[in-house]
Design a protein that fits this description.
The chain is an alpha+beta fold and 318 residues long. The protein has 11 helices and 9 strands.
Length: 318
């Protein structure tokens, strides 16, 4: 992994001289959106004062408020997305090449729906599948790829109103594990263990991910629950050293993670609440501290390969 001192040199030599216009553009957009928001708010109040006598119910008030909010959101979305695309071309593209010349970046591509389903980490029934920021290539001879994904399921309220719930939002990482698995092994965050301790085994056994796999590692089982279709293979895959490495990876990432071993791949899902490569319109984009955060996310692929020893050919693919 590149050192921070190397990143700092790269930032001031290759990025900072070329992103001054992006910071100027960000400030213009931020100022414009702030002015637009204030103007629409004032217009809404004025319109309400003039029209309140003609409002027959709450629906009229809702329409009056929805129109300016809708206008603001449309303008905001267009302005911000256009800015973010320029930022990705100028900054993220360069950072990916800096981390490794064997990595390639495509802001409009993502992990496919088929690859998502092949992880067996999520329910197969979803209604929305969106992704972007695909990074793929080789690290120490290991073929890897990852991207941002956001999947949702459609629900209906008791009143018949449609809404969407998140199934997964975050990064999905895929790498060659150098072995073809007969079954599949799934490692999930054990939230029930953290909440109810010893009673958690009852609820774990009700999971639809397969048979509950018990392992002789109390520290690992406090953080994760393991399911699989083959008890022997699951224990063979999850050696003591690999379990310790997964714990180390979780501490490094500082987010909930899920893993699966299926086919000849390892899948790693990093659950996040916000996007990893979209600059915030209210934050400076020419700050080294901000660039460092993007660098650390991209460098995650290197760390996963190193920490999980994916570059060590300990198994054949037979």
């Amino acid at each position: 992994m590149k050192k921070l001192s190397e990143l700092q040199d790269f930032f001031y030599e290759q990025i900072y001289p070329h992103i001054g216009y992006l910071e100027e553009e960000r400030l213009k957009i931020f100022s414009f959106l702030r002015t637009l928001g204030i103007s629409l708010f004032i217009l809404s109040i004025v319109a309400f004062l003039f029209l309140k006598e003609y409002m027959v119910d709450l629906n009229s008030l809702f329409v009056l408020l929805a129109v300016p909010v809708g206008i603001f959101m449309l303008v905001y979305s267009y302005q911000v997305k256009t800015f973010q695309r320029s930022f990705k071309d100028e900054v993220i593209q360069k950072l990916v090449s800096f981390v490794s010349p064997k990595l390639f970046y495509s802001k409009d591509s993502s992990i496919s729906r088929l690859e998502y389903d092949s992880s067996f980490l999520f329910p197969s029934s979803i209604d929305k599948f969106n992704g972007d920021d695909l990074i793929k290539g080789e690290i120490d001879g290991v073929s890897i790829k990852f991207s941002e994904l956001h999947t949702q399921k459609k629900k209906k309220s008791s009143k018949g109103q449609t809404y969407y719930v998140n199934i997964f939002k975050g990064l999905l990482f895929i790498a060659d594990f150098n072995k073809h698995f007969k079954g599949r092994t799934i490692v999930m965050p054990d939230k029930s263990e953290r909440l109810i301790g010893g009673f958690s085994h009852f609820f774990q056994s009700l999971s639809g991910h397969g048979e509950l796999i018990k392992l002789d590692n109390p520290e690992f089982e406090r953080e994760f629950v393991v399911y699989g279709s083959d008890q022997i293979e699951a224990r063979y895959i999850l050696s003591h050293s690999l379990m310790q490495n997964i714990l180390e990876l979780k501490k490094l990432i500082k987010e909930d993670i899920s893993l699966s071993f299926s086919g000849s791949k390892i899948y790693l899902a990093v659950h996040k609440t916000s996007s990893s490569f979209e600059p915030r319109i209210y934050k400076k984009v020419d700050s080294f501290d901000e660039i460092k955060l993007y660098f650390q996310t991209i460098s995650l692929v290197v760390e996963v390969v190193k920490i999980l020893n994916l570059d060590i050919k300990i198994w054949s693919k037979k």
